[in-house]
Amino acid sequence: MTKDPELLAILERIAVSLEKLAPEPEAVPSLDGADAFVWEPETDRLLPVETVSRVDISLLRGVDNVRDILLENTRRFTEGLPANNALLWGARGMGKSSLVKAAHAEMNKAKPGALALIEIHREDIDTLPRLMTAIRESGRRTVIFCDDLSFDHDDTSYKSLKAVLEGGIEGRPDNVIFYATSNRRHLMPSDMMENERSTAINPSEAVEEKVSLSDRFGLWLGFHKCSQQDYLEMVAGYAAFLELDIAPEELQAGAVEWAATRGGRSGRVAWQYIQDVAGRLGKPLS
Known about the structure:
alpha/beta; 10 helices; elongated
């Protein structure tokens, strides 16, 4: 070991410089300052969302039963009572993600700041264990939300989700609940499950492995294609809420034609039609 004073001084200066260049250790993500966040796994940060893109819960038509069930489950969780993870599955554009965001808003309307909402993107689902660990100690009641959750061939990240939701040594934190939306009831395409059945040594066990993921959700809330009556009620509800100056007969006739050109009816189609009407009338939607 050298005892050269000059060399020691140089090494000390190098060490000090390296310490200054080293990044600061990441702080534990904070749930303060906002009610909604987006998870950024690259930096282990929660990005605050000042204005959540949502619709008023009164505008969600044709989903009364599932709306009431999710609201009650969310209310219980917010109040510290037992509640279930929820999978909202079914027809596209029928308000699955809108209902989750509206339920969050309703809880905070009754008690401001009572409930946080964190969105995690589908491609980041394998980082869910890190996110749950990060917010476990916060104490704040939190809904982690993944929109359009599904798994394709050769995708093994569903195993991380299974372990986090109910399994593992630690289990799900008491202050966290997980809501997901999907077009698939079992979160995986039927051909993927059929392939498992045809190629596995024990077909029934292979399929069970896949299906058991959706079993981790205590609530399965189904959303089905809406009738024309429900669709027209959605359109009329949006028009009344936004105070659009248009005759009911003209509004209805235009809504029927709009749905026909899109090959189907849904809450999303109703909203897209309303945006078109508002634009023609020069009515801002803000």
